[in-house]
Specification:
Structural class of chain A: mainly alpha
Shape of chain A: globular
Oligomer: heterodimer
Shape of chain B: globular
Largest sheet of chain B: 2 strands, antiparallel
Order of helices and strands of chain A: HHHHHHHHHHHHH
Helix content of chain B: 55-70%
CATH superfamily of the largest domain in chain A: MetI-like
Radius of gyration of chain A: 26 Å
Chain lengths: 305, 403
């Protein structure tokens, strides 16, 4: 085991310094590495257990899925989260409709037309968008549309616009990865037949990467569904179901959690707490199911690394 | 000869377009790809020496098949067209090929346009934040960068960012100090210690942490975790001769608690990026360390860590960017401190970050003038995160050029 001659000529750790100490160091490192993993598991399990344990009983009532919070105060039990689900789903849907075409085209540009200076700048900007805080995106929409007077009232669609900034980089990144995996032979075969580049991309490249793009879209949806900051800045919360994205305040799952949290201080009534954890569990379920679907779709993909 | 060469290729492409889920090269079985046709096509392309973009035109004008087979009488353009339609018309390049150049141009412009759009979007964020913040900054009665005051009224705008800057930075730093070593540990666990079949599930589990919305971290952090962290505060405030550990009488909504929750939230991204670089450690470096008789830890110190350092640094910086901009979890956890209070260095004080201050006051935004200070705060946050993210990318990209 010991290699004194080698150790003598290296400036690194001295292997000759005694096997006992080396062994002890190695064991300590192993213990630390394993405990790092355990330490990370604790909050995850703790958090999930808390949310499930405190939130599940609300979810088993039919009113949870079919009614809203109209007229429900912190002294009363019951009510549902329909208004919140409607708001969240509508805002995310509009955001998806705007983001997907832009993001897919950007990814096509970065992979198929790359190598210009413009594409390098675009890659960098996508990276920057990935790291942009959601509150900054929200303030941007607020500054650009509301303070300028272009839009006079806060409404759900403004939230969708802010979420677009957060969703685009997620979809671009995943789509980019998938497009890079499409074998070049496919493109070359297509060109060889005289097929123009744009048709090759639309009919050959994109269909081949289809599942990967879907994965990216679902991950993007999961990323924005739980975003709260844009909601606070760009739309008010209401307890009533509002199907109209473009008019008046709208409920949302994060908004409902915040609303219930304001009544949490009252120890005599536990109804607000029940609804808070119920809404939290609903939100986690929504996001986790989306993530799971994304994983399953990704697994079905025929091209892989 | 002409037919023999082209037909398999056509069938192939037609099949693809018909069923996009059945790619030619199945990576799992490694079979069905009709290798010969692909090779033949490749050779043809190589022969004309122009395999890419412009080549649709090139092929149109000097059909390689013509050159090989010498059937010069046939007009090259319609030749391609006839063959395609002949094989069932499902080929992507079927039929009318007149607008080839225009189609390519328009599509090229379209994609480049969206690329520009993304660039413009980031630019617009900066422009609008600056433009809408200026009126407020012009009316600011105190120095924006050095004042601790925050009075926002229509006839009295006195606001400065010092308090927020300190809280934002200290919360993020606490998160980093906790998260980065643990993330490195997990990344090493996944890449170097865990048995192969555990590595993937473990990576998935860590990714689940990234999927949980931040508002859930917030309510869990303040209602569940914070009460359990009180002993830590009680212990550390015994050392209150250090300004960082001074007791400010805040029970749960401390900077420290916010930092702990943020640490959990940024753990996945730091882990993911570190894992990525550790995995790519050159095999030779690892084997060389083993050959010298190194223990596992010595191998890691000699080959994995030096190789992965830039990746870890950039992962940590991306995590820092997240921590600086995190809004709702911090808003829920941190207790506000009264405006008149003396400045505190303590991590057991409360406070507000840029993001939490904006979010907390957002429902009251109604006049452009009183909103401007918050837009200015948003601008500072944007500049901070931009700088941190850009630096992180720079570190990682510099590395790419080496490897």
């Amino acid at each position: 085991m010991s290699a004194p001659t080698v150790a003598a000529s290296t400036s690194g750790p001295s292997f000759a310094a005694g096997n006992g100490r080396r062994k002890a160091k190695d064991n300590t490192a192993t213990a630390l590495v394993y405990s790092a993993f355990i330490v990370a598991l604790i909050p995850l399990i703790w958090l999930l257990w808390t949310v499930v344990n405190r939130g599940y009983h609300g979810l088993f009532t039919s009113s949870w899925w079919t009614t809203d919070q109209r007229g429900i105060t912190f002294r009363r039990d019951g009510g549902g989260m329909l208004h919140a689900l409607v708001g969240t789903l509508e805002q995310v849907a509009l955001c998806t409709v705007i983001s997907v075409p832009i993001a897919v085209l950007v990814a096509v540009y970065l992979v198929e037309y790359a190598s210009s200076r413009l594409s390098r700048v675009a890659t960098f900007m996508v990276d920057i968008l990935t790291g942009i805080p959601s509150i900054v995106a929200a303030m941007f929409v607020y500054a650009a549309l509301i303070t300028t007077g272009i839009v006079d009232k806060r409404a759900g669609w403004l939230v969708s616009l802010a979420l677009v900034l957060l969703m685009i980089p997620v979809i671009v990144r995943t789509t980019e990865e998938m497009l890079k995996l499409v074998p070049n032979e496919l493109r070359e075969a297509s060109y060889a037949l005289g097929v123009p580049k744009w048709k090759t991309i639309i009919k050959i490249v994109l269909p081949t990467a289809f599942t990967g793009i879907i994965t990216g879209i679902i991950l993007g949806i999961a990323r924005v569904a739980g975003e709260t900051a844009p909601l606070i800045v760009l739309v008010g919360y209401t307890k009533e179901t509002n199907y109209n994205l473009f008019e008046a305040f709208q409920g949302s799952l994060p908004g409902m959690i915040l609303d219930q949290a304001t009544n949490l201080g009252n120890k005599r009534y536990h109804f607000a707490a029940d609804r808070l954890w119920g809404a939290a569990l609903t939100l986690i379920l929504l996001v986790m199911i989306l993530n799971l679907i994304a994983r399953l779709v990704a697994r079905r993909s025929k091209i892989s690394n | 000869m002409d037919n023999e060469v082209t037909r398999p290729g056509l069938r192939k492409v037609g099949g693809r377009a018909g069923n996009p889920y059945n790619p030619l090269i199945d990576p799992n079985t490694g079979v069905p790809v009709p290798d010969e046709p692909a090779d033949a096509l490749e050779q043809e392309l190589a022969a004309i020496g122009a395999p890419r973009p412009v080549d649709t035109r090139v092929i149109g004008s000097t059909d390689p098949r013509e050159m090989e087979t010498g059937t010069a009488g046939e007009p090259p353009i319609s030749g391609g067209g006839i063959h395609t339609t002949g094989s069932g018309g499902s080929g992507p390049g079927a039929g009318k090929r007149t607008p080839v150049r225009w189609g390519d141009r328009i599509f090229g412009w379209l994609t480049a346009g969206t690329g520009l759009l993304v660039i413009a979007l980031v630019g617009l964020v900066a422009v609008f934040l600056v433009v809408r913040a200026i009126p407020g900054l012009a009316d600011d009665k105190v120095n924006f960068l050095t004042s601790r005051e925050w009075t926002v009224e229509l006839d009295n705008l006195s606001f400065g960012i010092v308090d927020m800057l300190w809280t934002t930075v200290i919360v993020a730093v606490i998160a980093m100090v906790i998260a980065v070593p643990i993330a490195i540990g997990i990344a090493l666990f996944i890449t170097q210690y865990a048995p192969k079949r555990f590595a993937k599930p473990v990576a998935y589990i860590i990714d689940v942490l990234a999927a949980i919305p931040s508002i859930i971290y917030g309510i869990w952090g303040i209602y569940v975790l914070a009460p359990k962290l009180r002993p830590v505060r009680e212990f550390l405030t015994n050392l209150d001769f250090i300004p960082l550990f001074k007791d400010e009488g805040i029970e749960d909504g401390t900077v420290f608690n916010a930092g702990v929750v943020l640490a959990i939230m940024i753990l996945p991204i730091v882990t993911a990026i570190s894992r990525d670089v550790f995995e790519r450690t050159p095999r030779q470096n690892i084997e060389a360390a083993w050959a010298l008789g190194a223990t596992r830890w010595e191998m890691i110190r000699l080959s994995v860590l030096p190789y992965g350092r830039p990746g870890v640094v950039s992962g940590a910086m991306l995590g820092l960017g997240r921590a600086l901009g995190e809004t709702i979890a911090v808003m829920l956890i941190l207790s506000k401190v009264g405006a008149g209070n003396a400045f505190s260095w303590s991590i057991f004080s409360g406070g507000e970050t840029f993001a939490s201050k904006i979010a907390l006051n957002a429902p009251e935004f109604n006049d452009p003038k009183t909103t401007a200070p918050y837009i200015a705060a948003g601008l500072v946050l944007f500049v901070l995160t931009f700088a941190v993210n850009a630096a992180a990318r720079w570190v990682v990209n510099r590395r790419k050029e080496f490897s």
